[in-house]
Design brief:
The protein has 703 residues and is of the alpha+beta class. The protein has 2 domains: 305 residues, Thrombin, subunit H (Beta Barrel); 280 residues, no CATH class. 47% of the residues lie in helices and 14% in strands. Strands 1, 2, 3, 4, 5, 6, 7, 8, 9, 10 and 11 form an 11-stranded antiparallel beta sheet that branches. Strands 13-12-16-17-18-15-14 form a 7-stranded antiparallel beta sheet. The longest helix is centred in the last third of the chain and has 42 residues. The radius of gyration is 27 Å and the shape is globular. It starts with a helix and ends with a helix.
Length: 703
């Protein structure tokens, strides 16, 4: 009897602690709504500025200094001449694109000696939010109560287009609308998008990526993860395409920089564009992540990384060619390992299940709730079972087609030429134009090595084929008794798409009747089989279930907010501007251990290893350390602080986000989370989840 009582108390405690978070640091809040929702909590934790200082449409404010960096990261304006700070890994692909054996900016770093030496980046953009408005009523106000999902989707699409057009009419602004709380709310974001963004400077990778993959997602951290860009505008301070006539942009606001540093328990704000979280998925869905999705993705990426890492160690050119690709693949790979560890260690499935049991008990006890929400969890579980096979197929497609051997994507890009050539109504001139455009964009091969690509395919193809036994990706392509390794050898030996010389020769002599050679090419055929299976089988199946899934998740979200009102609800991240708040604090990573809230240059030196490229520092850094020559950037203790951690709730996309103190000053750049914290995309735990930032004083010291 005693054990039964103890068990009941423990179960209740788990449920209570899950529903009632112990910390106010969880959540990614929409800036326009913080005054109403969390400004009081922020003030209680130590914030000294007002909500209007963070977001306002009537005056310049911190919002105007926070910039969406090329759609994937965040950056911050720090001068009245458009100077942007972001992470080294956010600018990495651009630094790599400008690098060569003669000018190896990845290895040696780059610092423009003047405005005229700053490097342009075609296709890059920087976006500033001008205003955020709630348009829920305008979109859903005319929705009939008994509307089908198809009718609802059609109305949302029409109303959204009308609202976007109205919002930007007569301006140079752009706008987009995003759903929140699974479509229970809609907001419009009005933006100013700049297309002339130039590279100003970056430290060598031995500083900017210090620790490389070994230290990625790890604390203690000693990485100087920053790079510097500048926004340019026309003479009227408006967005314009690149031109030598453009001038540095004059922002409405830029963040002041603090050299005071941070102490434990200092209040912090991270202001940026987190990518995606799934904090409201069910226990069954979390279990799928742990037992199916993550293991498959890790298997595929481990295979490709084994090939790429080995090739990069052997050759300096290959190291340059594959640096950005390796970084992109390995970043998520290590994150998913940490995410799974964190979710298992902190019993995420059990905690989700506890919330669901409380929900179901309350629903069953109230007839009107039972009628409206009684079967929602069972329906979500049943749908998950129906879509699991297709969801895994989609993940395989992403990992092999988009993150695996590049020949598949390159060859697949020629399907448009095939269709143009087949269509007798298309003039020869249009085909010639397509070919000329493709010939002008052969920079693809600058960062391509056919042998490395072949080895990647060999490493992954068995997992890809065997993981989807019902699909026939090599139909009519494999010879009798040919294994997949032999098939891969033959593909790379015969396909013209693995050689710049071959593809140039083919295109330079192209006429429309030669499209059949493309169709018979092994690289093209394999690419076509894979993409066709996704487009004809996987995607339609997922699209068929999507309306039901959208409806169920929308009901599940609204139901939780109604049935369990004592729990705090914030919208999942979806790439839109958010504010998170927390405090500088260490944490216990495991039993009998306690991590401090900061690292120093002394720790950088302790890791230094000239024989290991991940920890091989520039000699100048050793000289400065030995002289203790830190200037005004030293902490009051005399040490050079490098990074610090805090309890802000962050995600991918927050990279480069400004970390702001209680007075609204820049104290660092967010660049990572601890390995244990990657679970926060699904479940945030305030006792263990920490974001990692580079101290702004270390940035200035390096510059």
């Amino acid at each position: 009897m005693k054990n039964q009582i103890v068990g009941t108390i423990m179960c209740f405690s788990l449920i209570f602690s899950t529903i009632h978070p112990l910390s106010a640091t969880e959540g990614m809040w929409i800036p326009s709504m913080i005054k109403k929702m969390v400004a009081g909590d922020m003030n209680a934790m130590g914030m000294k500025i007002s909500a209007d200082d963070l977001y306002s449409i009537n005056q310049s404010c911190i919002k105007d200094a926070v910039v969406h960096f090329n759609g994937g990261c965040t950056s911050v304006l720090v001068s009245d001449k458009g100077l942007l700070l972001t992470n080294h890994h956010c600018g990495y692909s651009r630094i790599q694109a400008h690098s060569s054996l003669e000018n190896n900016y990845l290895k040696d770093g780059f610092w423009a000696s003047g405005l005229d030496k700053e490097l342009s980046n075609p296709g890059m953009n920087a976006s500033i939010i001008k205003e955020i408005r709630d348009v829920t009523d305008a979109i859903l106000g005319e929705l009939p109560e008994n509307a089908t999902e198809a009718e609802r989707a059609a109305l949302v699409k029409i109303k959204s287009a009308e609202l976007v057009e109205s919002a930007i009419d007569g301006t140079h602004y752009q706008a987009y609308i995003r759903p929140f709380y699974f479509g229970n709310q809609y907001l419009i974001f009005i933006t100013e998008v700049f297309e002339d963004v130039r590279l100003v400077g970056a430290p060598p990778s031995s500083i900017g990526k210090y620790g490389y993959d070994t230290d990625n997602w790890v604390w203690p951290r000693h990485t100087g993860d920053f790079s510097v860009f500048r926004i340019y505008a026309n003479k009227d301070n408006k967005p314009a395409e690149y031109s030598e006539e453009n001038v540095p942009f004059k922002p409405a606001y830029h963040l002041p920089v603090s050299l005071e540093g941070v102490d434990e328990n200092d209040f912090t704000i991270v202001y940026g564009f987190p990518g995606r979280t799934d904090n409201y998925i069910t226990s069954n869905e979390v279990n799928d992540v742990l037992t199916k999705t993550n293991p498959m993705r890790l298997q595929m990426r481990e295979a490709s990384l084994g090939v790429i890492d080995a090739a990069m160690r052997k050759d300096e050119l290959t190291k340059i060619q594959y640096a950005a690709k390796q970084s992109r693949i390995s970043n998520a790979y290590k994150k998913w390992i940490g995410q799974s560890k964190g979710l298992i260690r902190h019993e995420a499935v059990s905690k989700k299940d506890s919330i669901e049991r409380v929900f179901q008990e309350r629903v069953n006890a109230k007839p009107e709730w039972s009628d409206a929400y009684g079967g929602v969890l069972l329906d979500i579980s049943a749908l998950d079972t129906k879509t699991q096979h297709h969801s895994m197929s989609r993940n395989f497609f992403i990992e092999f087609f988009y993150m695996g051997p590049e020949v598949l994507r390159f060859a697949g890009g020629f399907s448009e030429l095939v269709e143009l050539s087949k269509n007798k109504e298309v003039a020869d001139e249009e085909i010639d134009k397509w070919v000329a455009n493709k010939l002008s964009k052969m920079g693809y091969f600058k960062n391509y090595d056919a042998q490395v690509d072949e080895d990647i395919m060999k490493a992954q193809i068995n997992y890809f084929i065997e993981g989807q036994p019902l699909a026939i990706f090599t139909k009519d392509m494999r010879k009798k008794n040919e294994d997949l390794a032999g098939f891969t050898d033959r593909l790379y030996a015969e396909s013209m798409f693995v050689s710049e010389a071959s593809i140039r020769s083919f295109l330079e002599g192209y006429s429309r009747n030669k499209y059949k050679k493309i169709e018979k090419d092994m690289g093209y055929m394999f690419s076509k089989n894979i993409s066709s299976h996704y487009m004809d089988v996987t995607r339609p199946a997922l699209m068929e279930f999507a309306p039901t899934q959208d409806s169920l998740m929308r009901v599940w979200m609204a139901a939780q907010m109604e049935v369990i009102p004592e729990k705090t609800y914030y919208p999942d991240a979806n790439g839109t501007l958010r504010i998170t708040f927390g405090k500088v604090e260490g944490y216990p990573p495991f039993d009998a251990a306690e991590y401090a809230h900061f690292t120093t240059l002394e720790g950088v030196m302790e890791k230094e290893d000239p024989t290991n490229p991940e920890y091989n520092l520039p000699p100048k850094m050793r000289e400065l350390y030995n002289a203790k020559d830190y200037g005004q950037y030293a902490h009051e203790t005399g040490e050079m602080r490098v990074c610090f951690i805090a309890s802000n709730h962050t995600s991918g996309g927050n990279s480069g986000s400004p970390v702001i103190n209680a007075k609204g000053e820049l104290i660092g750049l967010n660049f990572d989370r601890t390995w244990e914290s990657t679970m926060s995309d699904i479940m945030f735990n305030s006792s263990i989840c920490r974001n990692i930032s580079i101290d702004i004083r270390y940035v200035l010291f390096i510059m």
